[in-house]
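Example record

The entry below shows one chain as it appears in the dataset: sequence first, then structure tokens.
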Amino acid sequence: MKPILSLLITILLFTVTTVVCSGQKAVQPPTLVKISDKPLHAGRINPMIYGGFIELLDDLVPGMWAEMLNDRNFEGVEKASRWCYYLGEPNFCDREWDHSATWSYDTVMPFNGSRSARLTTRKEENAALIQSGLAVKKGMKYLFEGYFRTNSPHLKVTVSLEFLNPDGTRTILGSAKLAESNSGWAKQKCEITSTGTTDRAVFRLSVNGSGNLWIDKISLMPGDNLKGWRPDVAQVVKAAHPTVIRWGGSIVDPGGYKWKNGIGSRDLRVPFRNWYWGRIDPNDVGVDEFLQFCELVEAEPLICISFMEGPECARDLIEYCNGTPDTKWGKIRAANGHPKPYHVQYWQIGNERGDQEYITGSTAFGRVIREVCPDAIILSSAPSMEILRVSGKYLDILCPHHYSPELADHEASLNEVSRIIRNS
């Protein structure tokens, strides 16, 4: 590396403002700007200082995930919490199934969760389940699947993508017929290739015949999805080069997300109410999907462990992510489609906790993490002298949270953390 020459250049910038007033010109005083080529830091800045954060809040993950149907579990649609940043504009998470007299929610014997959709068709009136506002591309293959049962095995079921013309007529962009259903829940699949491009497409599931058809856990995905993620999102995030991406937040601790309920087949995962941010989360994106996204964008994963679930649950999570297939949880991960360990190194104890209960309990978490993953980099939930005194031997990084829009507040906070570390 060539030596950096110390050079101080002083530039006087004169901003001259001409004011027409009694024939006089007023000149503002000069502004002094100092430019130096001397670095502010004596060494290299660690690239791990920059990263991203994925949290199950509002429309963040649904906007990144490739699923095209909202409320695919038929648990209903709820609004975002009023306290959060949500501005109220309708988005994917507000999209509902079109209201119709030919279908209703049914709580009797759903395939998953608390209810399914029941379509009632008669010879004189077909039943239909419709969701509007989809975007499709010409030539793209769309993958449909779902679970079906019926009390009339000869019903005819068609799945289609359509465009609603200004005059009210429909242009069918692609369709496929499903096999006959029976009285027990069974999975059906089909593929639809769109013949056109529009951001005003309509999904329609039509039933003709006479009887009832129950459906649950339906899904529509574009064929170019990357392990469930939108390819354009993965491309943009990868181009931004985030060295580390954090998974967790308030939904993990103390929210409704439980990692053990969000692994394995997405068909079997039960949706949960996101009481902190609002909405009903379909539970389609869990720790596996997050880690596979990190693989796609070539970023290191950082997982926030739920403090409320306790250190033994943390042990299981680490073994699930990093254990070999001959361990209990490593075997489960392998059965879920990922035999190779994820090798997660960054683990944070809890989310935005700094109370006495957290400080006292953090030692048990640190001990467990070191036992299961000796080379782990362990992060605190908040910085303090007390957390260092109690659990400092386990911690590698202190993590302040900043919400102020003032840069001076952030600088003061970081200076305080530096002081805490120096004096520990």
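Notes for this example: Helices lie at 60-64, 231-240, 287-297, 311-322, 328-335, 356-372, 385-391, 407-423. The mean pLDDT is 89.
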